Structure formats: structure tokens, C-alpha cells
Amino acid sequence: MEPINEVQSVMTPLDRKNVDTDQIISKEFLKRIERTGFGKYLFYHWRINADGTENKDFVLNDERFKGSKILVAQENFGCGSSREHAPWAILDYGFEVVIAPSFADIFHNNCFKNGLLPIRLKVDEIEELLTKGKSKPYALEINLEQQTVTGEDGKAYTFDIDPYYKQMLLNGWDEIALTFQYEEQISEYEKKHA
């Protein structure tokens, strides 16, 4: 995984509640065995019309948000099944951060394990960001080390994160890479108990 600390980008305002993993990446696209290539299917049934054309009314098809690295949504983001493909699709599309008032537990944990930063802010703070982001492109700066989200107008928000997950993201470690940080201690233990 790539380390993550500072992310600066226009935010993409996805003003929807209870976005489930089947909406994030629909079941018919889960046949791949790689972790890559899922981005083109992100929110597919919202992005693409039945005739194969782009839904011009969906936020990800709005040119103003192309290249955005920060997705802002409503509560209970990532509910539904436990598919790890959901954070894979979000990352593969280009997002590095998802901000919402709440996340489904399994999705939340899957984000950290795959290098996607999920940030919880208060409902009123999310409403404020969505209002700003829908009226015109609104840039945010995320600083994981300082645990802050700062808007282009200087408005700052703070967030909490488990120190374990914070270290993993800052260093770009997955659980296997984290285990290797203790390789010397593991070798010593194995020698003593051989």
C-alpha cells in the first residue's frame, strides 16, 4: 500500500445516505481476481444509464469533480455485504479518502486494510461540506498526522482515528507489512522455542 498523510483535492459531494456495497460495486462485476480494474464499475448503475450512456445528473459524471481524491457522503456509508471489492473500487477510481458521519463496521475496517482513509465527521459538519461542495467545486486538505480536514475557506474540522490504523496508513503498511516490523522479535521467539 502507498503511505497516506496529506491529500489535497476538490471534494466530490455524494449527498446520499445508506450507500451500500452493492451500489458501490455491483455483484456482476465481482468476477475479477485482481484488486485492480474495479474503478470503472464504481457506482455503475448510478453513473451509467440502461442504454450505456453516462447519467449526466450523477455527481461522478460532473466534469467539475473529475480527478477528485476525496468523496463526501451521508451516514451509514458502506453498509450491506462485507465485500472487500468496495474499497478496491473506490481506490481504483482515484479516491483516497471517504468522509461521512458513519460507516458500516466491516467496510470501515476494509478501508484501513486496503489503504483508503475513512474519516468520520459530525452530521452537521458533513451537511456544511455537502452544501459548499454542491454549490461550486470546493477543495479540502486532509492531514492524517494532525487529524484535520481543512476547507479552502480555512474552516477546519478535526477527526478521531485509532492510533493503530493511523500508523498503518501513514507508513503504507498492511497487516503483513506490520508483522514484518517485528521480524527480529519473531526470530528471537522462534529460536527460544525451537
From TrEMBL:
It catalyses: (2R,3S)-3-isopropylmalate = (2S)-2-isopropylmalate. The keyword Phosphoprotein does not apply. GO terms for biological process: L-leucine biosynthetic process. InterPro entries: 3-IsopropMal_deHydase_ssu (IPR004431), Aconitase/3IPM_dehydase_swvl (IPR015928), AconitaseA/IPMdHydase_ssu_swvl (IPR000573), IPMI_Swivel (IPR033940), LeuD (IPR050075). Transmembrane segments: none annotated. Keywords: Amino-acid biosynthesis, Branched-chain amino acid biosynthesis, Leucine biosynthesis, Lyase. Its EC number is 4.2.1.33. Pathway: Amino-acid biosynthesis; L-leucine biosynthesis; L-leucine from 3-methyl-2-oxobutanoate: step 2/4. Gene3D superfamilies: Aconitase, domain 4 (3.20.19.10). Residues 1-122 form the Aconitase A/isopropylmalate dehydratase small subunit swivel domain. One of its GO terms (cellular component) is 3-isopropylmalate dehydratase complex. It holds the Pfam family Aconitase_C. It is an enzyme of class 4 (lyase). GO terms for molecular function: 3-isopropylmalate dehydratase activity. NCBIfam families: leuD, PRK01641.1. Belongs to the LeuD family. LeuD type 1 subfamily. PANTHER family: 3-ISOPROPYLMALATE DEHYDRATASE SMALL SUBUNIT, 3-ISOPROPYLMALATE DEHYDRATASE SMALL SUBUNIT 2-RELATED-RELATED. Heterodimer of LeuC and LeuD. Catalyzes the isomerization between 2-isopropylmalate and 3-isopropylmalate, via the formation of 2-isopropylmaleate. This is 3-isopropylmalate dehydratase small subunit. It comes from Sporosarcina thermotolerans. The lineage of its organism: Bacteria, Bacillati, Bacillota, Bacilli, Bacillales.
